[in-house]
Amino acid sequence: MPIITNIDVMLARRKMSSGELAQKVGITPANLSILKCGKAKAIRLSTLEALCRALDCQPADILEYRPEE
Length: 69
What we know:
This protein has helices at 7-14, 18-25, 29-36, 45-55, 59-62, and strands spanning 3-5, 63-65. The chain is mostly helical. It starts with a strand and ends with a strand.
């Protein structure tokens, strides 16, 4: 899939655990894992907003487009 999620990168930069982020965002650790590994087919804008708020970043810091070769 050409959309890459960089949640792990942002977690490392913020020195935050996945569990802590899931709690701040209000989603289950399992759903956060699905987002992190790129298996999600969609993401709600409200979830993206909560991720950006919790990580103090912009959507472009979390989502990246890489065209398939």
